[in-house]
Write a structure and sequence with these properties.
350 residues, alpha/beta, Rossmann fold, three-stranded mixed β-sheet, 15 strands
Length: 350
């Protein structure tokens, strides 16, 4: 276990943020610090970056420290808890690629399910019972209707990644029902994109990019010859898949809002974090071309197995119960992403 950073005062309490050196995690660390929390990040750096947290601390001048370790290691987590008083845990650590999960399902079950169990055991044994869990809209499987509300059935995911998230949701629901000491918030992310407006932190996938926007950036940076669009025969306006994209900074503040709920309530809360607006792949390409003032070449191929035509959130429950809503537009998302790319063409590999 290696610890970087400093320990300071924490007027709102100290938070353990697992997976906090990644794309969503680094932005969430900034949002937490700006809200007055002190943040301890636990990350094995398999998908995260030390420099992301150094820059996060520079953005907010907050108390952010990094512990390099694996959330599946019970002893590591217990040691962290013994070193300070923690108000709550936000659990983002895990594997997250849909296509990779099809190739390596056991790795996803080990990381996402076993990691969550080890964390909850360490929390319970340390007397910490407040948790925010990073889930996904993939738990809804093929939507029966859109926009998708939290009451939509879950568990019929189309890939091992989605199954792993649905299983952890079920585990946490049982924990909450069986032990009234727990307060658990589950956040079902839709499609986070963008970057911090400062241009200092953004998304840099380890290995080959798989999601739409990182792939487009690879095309614009000359790392790929063209964008491979997976299907144009979906029952949507232009035939390409429609998704609900949310600015990563809006998503980050959703964690702060959910944290406030768990600190003042008991039981289980579940919320979608999305905008409620869908955008097709071709629409994203067209908008990004205007912002970057460059052409994005693409080719159409067959759809990916398990892909759904449309996935758009109904975020009204989060607005009502958390007083949270996404405020940034698609142009904000793409402009901030492009600013990050221009400033960091090689990501954190400076």
């Amino acid at each position: 276990m290696i610890v970087y950073g400093r320990i300071g005062a924490h007027p709102m309490g100290r938070i353990l943020l697992t997976g906090g050196a990644g794309f969503i995690g680094s932005h969430t660390a900034v949002a937490l610090a700006e809200a007055g929390y002190s943040v301890t990040v636990l990350d094995d750096l398999s998908n995260g970056h030390r420099l992301a947290l150094a820059r996060a601390q520079d953005i907010c001048s907050g108390d952010i420290r990094l512990v390099v370790g694996d959330v599946r290691d019970y002893n590591t987590v217990r040691t962290i808890f013994e070193g300070d008083h923690f108000a709550s845990v936000i659990h983002l650590a895990g594997l997250k690629s849909i296509s990779d999960s099809v190739d390596r399902p056991l790795a996803y079950f080990d990381s996402n399910i076993a990691g969550s169990i080890a964390l909850c055991r360490a929390m319970s044994d340390s007397g910490i019972f407040r948790l925010i869990f990073s889930s996904s809209a993939t738990v809804y499987g093929r939507p029966r209707s859109t926009p998708i509300a939290e009451s939509h059935p879950v568990g019929d995911a189309t890939n091992p990644y989605g199954h792993s998230k649905a299983i952890v949701e079920k585990l946490l629901g049982d924990v909450s029902r069986c032990d009234p000491r727990w307060s658990i918030g589950i956040l079902r992310y839709f499609n986070p994109i963008g970057a911090h407006p400062s241009g200092k932190i953004g998304e840099q996938p380890r290995g080959e990019a798989a999601n739409l926007l990182p792939v487009i950036c690879d095309v614009l940076n000359g790392k790929r010859p063209y964008l491979h669009i997976l299907g144009d025969q979906f029952p949507t306006g232009d035939g390409t898949g429609v998704r609900d994209y949310i600015h990563v900074c809006d998503l980050a503040f959703g964690h702060v809002a959910a944290l406030s709920w768990t600190l003042s309530n008991q039981g289980l809360g579940i919320w979608n974090l999305g905008t409620g607006r869908g955008h097709s792949v071709l629409e994203i390409v067209s908008r990004f071309e205007k912002i970057a003032a460059r052409t994005i070449p693409y080719r159409i191929g067959p759809p990916r197995e398990g892909d759904v035509a449309e996935c758009v959130a109904d975020p009204s429950k989060a607005a009502m119960e958390l007083n949270w809503r996404a405020v940034r537009t698609m142009d904000d998302m793409l402009s901030d992403l492009w600013a990050w790319q221009l400033r960091n063409p090689n990501g954190y590999n400076t």
